[in-house]
Amino acid sequence: MPGQFEPIPGGGAAIALDDVEISIIRSLSVQLLELIGPGPAEDSSDDPLAELFAEGPTEPPSDPVLRRLFPDAYGDPVDVPSSPGQAEEEREHAAEFRRFTENDLRTGKRESALAVIRSLDALTPAGDGGAVLKLSHDESQRWLGTLNDLRLAIGSRLDVVDEEDTDLLYRLPDEDPRKPMVMAYLWLGGLQETLVSTLMP
Predict the structure, then answer these.
(1) Fewer CB within 10 Å, N side or C side of the chain?
(2) What is the pLDDT of residues 138-161, one digit of tens each?
(3) What is the pTM of this model?
(4) Nearest Cα to Cα of residue 147 among 192, 193, 200, 196
(5) What are the angstrom distances between the C-alpha of 163 and each of 6, 15, 18, 65, 178?
(6) Rounded to an integer, what distance in angstroms lies between the CA atom of residue 146 and that of residue 195?
């Protein structure tokens, strides 16, 4: 099973990872956690109910990566310009939606990234280096979410908007300073694709 996820009995997935691959995924997941930031309960209150009633931000994040991870729920269709009144109404709806959902979205992404890190930390090394990672169905879903978030984050840094941009990445010369990031982006895409295939009924 080198290089790709394969199904295992019980509905989970498994993959053989070498030490470098383990280190890359773990490092990227830690960076994702740092980017997402702490939850409301971690930085504000000792009240256990505070998180339930904490309101999130109403404005999109300033960081383009976070804007990709937490996009507005409402917006103008590209080919149908809205009137100024419609645009203002959409901004208000987007702000209200973000206020009540972004904290939960951040918590979910944070928990998934932590699950990825913990599953990597729990691996038992094989004799020749690396290890076989075995995931339950629920763990696979968390991995899938984090792989997607990592690709969105890296894609944002690489200015990937559509398939045409991805095609251009394959043609970057080796000396381009973006090449390591491109290789990680493409590799994570392959992992994501095989994990999706593994989880399909």
Answers:
(1) C
(2) 999 999 999 999 999 999 999 888
(3) 0.82
(4) 192
(5) 26, 27, 29, 18, 18
(6) 12
